[in-house]
Amino acid sequence: MEAYESIVSKAVEDGVIPGAIFLASDVEGKLRYSRAVSGMNSTYTEETALEVASLTKLVTTIAVLQLVERGLIRLEDDVSHLIPEFSSRGVLDGDVNDDGSYTSHPPRNTITLHRLLTHSAGGAYTFTDDRIAKFVAVSPGYVSNGTINSDFNFPLSYEPGEGWRYSNSLDRVGQIVEKLTELTLEDYFKNNIFQPLGISSASFWGGKRPPMVVRAHPNARAVPDPEAPSFTTGLKECFGGQGLFINLPDYMKILRSLLLDDQVLLKRETTALMFKPSLSSASKAALIQELESATWTVGDIPKTKEYDWGLGGLLIDGDSHPYRRRNTLLWSGAPSVYWFIDRSAGVCGVFGTQVLPPSDPVVLPLIKAFEETVYIQKGL
User: Beta-lactamase-related domain: from which residue to which, for each copy (predicted)?
Assistant: First the structure.
């Protein structure tokens, strides 16, 4: 890994990134790599808690799957009564008008937990559907106040089960966990995920982190901006899709537990479900089409068309990737954070910095090189 460390150190020295933390592990315990690289104007250590944005989604997925194991809910259950606000504005029939008005209809298909977990329940983010972005920009009825119900008070983008959009659905899953357990997501995570794994750094109210870097253009230096808004700015409750602070050695404990299939978090049959294709044919086609043109993904997503969605992340659904095995699970967070678990190859890894915008063209090669180096180090 020394060659890769040199690449990252040079990137920090040149102002490409403010610093980085990266860890890798394998099943046998022969590969247990952990490193932090910091620049003169930043403090990145292995104990530094990062704002991990959508890396929160994997933890929320594990939480609700624990409830499935306990019989509190089933994957195919209709959950609309638990989150009535999710579909209260209906499914869009067409475009949003300039005054914010639109026509819609109630969902014809069921909103299930499974569809929420796989981003196929009808929801979207503003950056994954231009109509939702327009609605937020012009609708006099949209007011964000730092709660899930206000911040994601959108119409649905498509019929549940008939499409795919990356979305706020895991924030809704977090609400379901809170309603079924009568605990905040903070307390549920602490009692059922963090404490069993010896994780002490994680919180929705983590506070201090390295300043976010917002790069103006690809040739700009990575100048920290402590005033830059982030994915937790102004939040008043636990957002299960984006709100967690955690240091990456602690996050690695979650990845390694799933890699080892040690049953600390989930039963083996439940973990196996996470690594299986989960989308309908229509939703899978929509996912692949989305990935062909998406400008917001973080990590190496070659246009192989060999993708599905597992329970917790993007799933490799083919054999043409140069190093990833079929059924590798992976995903990322907007400020240039990324994880992967390849159970067939027996490796997992996580990379993190705090750089925006998502899919930063300067950081992406560093993430790709990290993942490739892990496979090479493993001899694969």
Answer: 7-358
Residue-level pLDDT at 40: 63
Q: Are 111 and 73 in contact (CB under 8 A)?
A: no
Contact between residue 139 and residue 100 where contact means Cβ atoms under 8 Å apart: yes
pLDDT digits (tens, 9 = 90+) for 204-244: 997 678 888 888 787 888 778 777 778 999 999 999 999 99
Task: Name the phi and psi angles at 36, rounded to 5.
Answer: -125, 135
How far is CA 323 from its chain centroid? Answer: 22
pTM of full prediction above 0.85: yes
What range does the domain containing 286 cover?
Answer: 2-51+213-236+244-378
- For residue 110, is it within any domain? no
Any catalytic annotation for residue 201? no
Domain count, the chain: 1
Q: Is 57 a catalytic residue?
A: yes
CB atoms within 10 A of CB 263: 11
Here the CATH number for the domain that contains residue 298 is 3.40.710.10
Nearest to 169 by CA among 122, 133, 128: 122
**Catalytic-labelled residue, pool 25, 54, 139, 257:** 54
Catalytic residue, chosen from 57, 253, 284, 378, is: 57
Catalytic site residue 166?
A: yes
Structure tokens at 211: 């300043």
CB 18 within 8 A of CB 210: yes
Peptide bond before residue 357 is cis, with ω within 30 degrees of 0? yes
> Which residue is it, tokens 């809910």?
73
Mean pLDDT on 201-205: 96
Q: Token pair of 265, please?
A: 């978090």
Side-chain half-sphere CA neighbours of 254 within 13 A: 28
Say if CB 309 and CB 302 are below 8 A apart.
Answer: no
Helix axes 2-13, 364-378, angle to 10 degrees: 170
